[in-house]
Amino acid sequence: MSDNLARAPRPNWESTPDTASVPEPRHIEIVSPRSQRHARPKIVYALSAVTGVAAIVLAQLLLSVGISQSAYEVSRLQASQVELGRTAESVTEDLVRVSSPQSLAANAEALGMVSNSNPVYLRLSDAAVLGAPASASGSSAGTASLVPNSLLVGVPLVTELPQTTGQGASLGGSQAEVPAAVAPVAPAAEPNALPTPTTR
């Protein structure tokens, strides 16, 4: 009985499988159609590279021209700034010269003002006059005591200026007309106010 089991045929493990029944793996490759291969020729890449280089060179040229124009503009503005600085210094020197005490005294005398050597003060709290008021003499003793200013030689007085010139520089290159005489406007008197002195 056990004899049949012992003689059962053993499977043949050493035999090779049949190669014709197993399919070989296929190599898959994606190929573009012929119309796509001819749509992008190599010359397009060359033309785009040449165009890019030309655009870069043109941009650099325009940038250098713009920078050089800006440099010329900066140089012109710096020269103008130096010239305006010199003009401002000259005008400041003229202003200091005509605002000296000697110039102010000479212009005041030319306008008819006289100096008074007898000072009188007004106390505002009770409107009291302090000092002995006396009329001022018309002599030029006050200006004679001033130290002469050699820088004022050739500077005209206020009364010697032409009537067509304004105060200082004229606006827009045109000279403004100065009225010959302006009538003073008296302010309206307020009740319980201090009296205002009348001046010429």
Task: Jot down its keywords.
mainly alpha; two-stranded antiparallel sheet; 200 residues
A few lines on this structure:
This protein has 200 residues and is mostly helical. It is built from 5 helices and 2 strands, in the order H-H-H-H-E-E-H.
Describe the structure.
This protein has 200 residues and is mainly alpha-helical. It is 41% helix and 3% strand. The chain contains 5 helices and 2 strands; from the N terminus they run ααααββα. The chain has helices at 2-6, 34-39, 42-98, 101-110, 141-144; strands at 121-123, 128-130. It has a two-stranded antiparallel sheet. The protein starts with a helix and ends in a 56-residue tail after the last helix. The relative contact order is 0.06.
Question: What's the SSE blueprint?
Answer:
Blueprint: H1 2-6, H2 34-39, H3 42-98, H4 101-110, E1 121-123, E2 128-130, H5 141-144
Antiparallel strand pairs: 1-2
Number of H- or I-type helical stretches = 5
State the strand order across the main sheet: 1-2
**Major β-sheet profile:** 2 strands, antiparallel
| Radius of gyration over all CA atoms, rounded | 54 Å
Low-confidence residue ranges: 168-184
Morphology call:
elongated
The SSE string, one letter per element, is HHHHEEH
C-alpha termini separation: 163 Å
Strand content: under 5%
Question: Roughly how much helix do the residues carry, as a percent range?
Answer: 40-55%
Residue-averaged pLDDT, rounded? Answer: 74
Number of strands: 2
**Classification by helices and strands:** mainly alpha
